[in-house]
Amino acid sequence: MTERAGVIILGSNSTRMLAADIPGLTCPVRGRVETRLFLGMDEHQNMADDAIRRAAQSAGQLCSKAREEGAQRIFVLATSAARDARNTADLARAVQEACGCAPWILSGQMEARYAYLGAASAVPGDVGVIDIGGGSTEVVWGTGEDITYAHSFQLGAARLHAQHAIRTPQDIAPALELAADALGAFPQPIPDKWMLVGGTGAALKDIALQLPAASPTPEEFAFDRALVSEQLNHMASLTPEERLRVTGLPPGREHIFPTGLAVLLAVMDTLGIGQGTVTLRNNTDGFLYAYDRGIM
C-alpha cells in the first residue's frame, strides 16, 4: 500500500522539505527556504527571537506545502544550530505551534547517516558524501547502506563566516587554514567517488550552469577542484551586493557562500579529492529512505 510521507529539516542555513510516495520515494516534491538560523545565534549560544520566528514560519509553510502535496505523515527534524543552542526549547515550542509537532534534534552522526543514505545508497560501489551545512560538515563513506566512516565536524559555512568572514581574496588563506585545522586527519583508504550535498553544492552547480532561482535543475552535476577554487576567488573579489547579482546564487547566501566554498576546498585538499558530483538528493531523501526501509 502506498503512503505519502513528508519530512522538513531545519538546517542552520536553510529549511528543506521533501514529500514522496512510500515505498520507493517516487513522485518527489521539494521545497526550500533560506532561514539563516545559525547566524541568528549570539555569543551565549542563544538563537535570536527573530531567527526562531523565521525558522518556525518557514517550517510551517513547508509543512503546509507537504500536506498540499498529499503527505499523510510529516516528520520535522533539526540539525546543527538546534544541537548547539542553549534555547532549543524555544525553537521546539515555536515549531510545534507552526507544524503541530516538535522537531527531533538530530545528532551529528545521524545527520551524517541521513546525508549518506540520501546521496549515496543507490550509487554502486564505494562512495563518499560531503554535506556542508551552516554549522557543521558531515563526511561519510561506505557501500550501499553500509557505512564505513562517518563524522560530523564543527565546521560549516555560517560557522566559518562567524570565525573569519571572506570579504576579500586576502581572507581566503586564513579561512582555509581554520577549516583544515577543524578537519584534522582522516582514516585511509578513502573512496574514489564523492557526492556533494547541501546549499554550497547547489549554489556552485546553479552558478556554473547560470540557472536563475527556481529554474529546473539537473539532479547531478560534475565539478572539480579547479571550479571550486575559481568560484572562491571570484566570490571573494565581490561585495555581498555584487554577489547577489550573480545568476544562480540564492538570496541569503551572499555572505556565507565563499566560506562554504572554503570548507569544500579544505575537505577536498585534506582528503586528496580532485573531483566530485553535486546531487540534488540530501538528508531529507536519506530520512525518508530510512523510514521506507524501517532502518530509522
Descriptive account of the structure:
By secondary structure, this protein is an alpha/beta fold. It folds into 2 domains: 3-106, 2-Layer Sandwich (Nucleotidyltransferase, domain 5); 108-279, 2-Layer Sandwich (Nucleotidyltransferase, domain 5). The chain has 11 helices and 11 strands. The strands form 2 sheets. Strands 8-7-6-9-11-10 form a 6-stranded mixed sheet, sandwiched between helices. The longest helix is centred in the N-terminal third of the chain and has 20 residues, at 49-68. The mean pLDDT is 96.
Question: Which characteristics define this entry?
Answer:
11 helices, alpha/beta, Nucleotidyltransferase, domain 5, 5-stranded mixed sheet, 6-stranded mixed sheet, single chain, 296 residues, 2 domains
Biggest sheet, spatial arrangement of strands = 8-7-6-9-11-10
- CATH class designation of the largest domain: Alpha Beta
Tell the overall outline.
Answer: globular
Query: Might you state the CATH topology name of the largest domain?
Result: Nucleotidyltransferase, domain 5
First CA to last CA: what distance? 20 Å
Describe the sheet with the most strands. Answer: 6 strands, mixed
Name the assembly state: single chain
Number of helices: 11
Mean pLDDT value: 96
Helix content estimate: 40-55%
Number of domains: 2
Strand content: 15-25%
Structural class: alpha/beta
What's the architecture of the largest domain in CATH terms?
A: 2-Layer Sandwich
CATH superfamily label of the largest domain: Exopolyphosphatase. Domain 2
Order of helices and strands: EEEHEHHEHEEEHHEHEHHHEH
Radius of gyration: 18 Å
In total, how many beta strands? 11
